[in-house]
Design a protein that fits this description.
This protein is of the alpha/beta class. The chain is built from six helices and nine strands; from the N terminus they run E-H-E-H-E-E-E-E-H-E-H-E-H-E-H. The chain has one domain: Methylesterase CheB, C-terminal domain (Rossmann fold). The strands form two sheets. It has a seven-stranded parallel beta sheet, with helices on both faces. Strands 5-6 form a two-stranded antiparallel ribbon.
Length: 189
């Protein structure tokens, strides 16, 4: 199964709304969004984007199996790990703490460590302050995943994607519209 993993912080809700409106289908996999957001508003955010999305949208749950054709928004109460045991792909909550919940690096690193068919991963860093996700993006690129970052014009805050570009973690730096096209092609090929 293919996975498109998205890491986003400042400006994330508006960007994620644009993505879910434009992605028509995900026949070959799922989209997982690690969004830095307050715990008390994640449920209302997921409810709102569910109403405009072409795909079902869910908050991740512990031990939840990934299914094709869905968008998962990482729970903000715990950090999320990707696990692959006997070809069963699922989420697992983690007590690892690195500052953010969900921590993009922790999720991306778990994908790099656990998903042996890394050519079936696309990882994307979008708008945000700082460097969360950049180290994990580099690990995924080194394993053969497709790695993208948003350009300056598409970012509310050009911190995380700028850093991904600077260290070479992003194979391509694209506009948000170009990223959405790449995501939809990848998840349906």
């Amino acid at each position: 199964m293919k996975i498109v993993a998205v890491g986003v912080s400042t400006g994330g809700p508006t960007i994620i709304e644009k993505i879910v409106k434009k992605i028509e289908k995900a026949q070959k996999g799922s989209i997982v969004v690690c969004l830095h957001m307050q715990e008390d508003i994640i449920e209302s955010f997921v409810s709102r984007i569910s109403s405009i999305s072409n795909l079902p949208v869910e908050i991740t749950k512990d031990k939840q199996e990934l299914k094709k054709g869905k968008i998962y928004i990482c729970d903000t109460h715990k950090n999320i790990l990707y696990k692959n045991i006997n070809k069963k792909e699922f989420f697992q909550f983690s007590n690892k703490q690195d500052g953010f919940k969900p921590d993009i690096d922790i999720f991306f690193e778990s994908l790099a460590d656990e998903k042996s068919d890394s050519h079936n991963i696309m990882a994307v860093i979008l708008s945000g302050i700082g460097e969360d996700g950049v180290k994990g993006l580099m690990s995924l690129r080194e394993k053969g995943a497709v790695t993208l970052a948003s350009d300056k014009d598409s970012s509310i805050v050009y911190g995380m994607p700028k850093r991904a570009k600077e260290i070479g973690a992003a194979a391509k730096v694209l506009s948000l519209d170009e990223i959405i096209k790449e995501m939809e092609l990848f998840i349906n090929e």
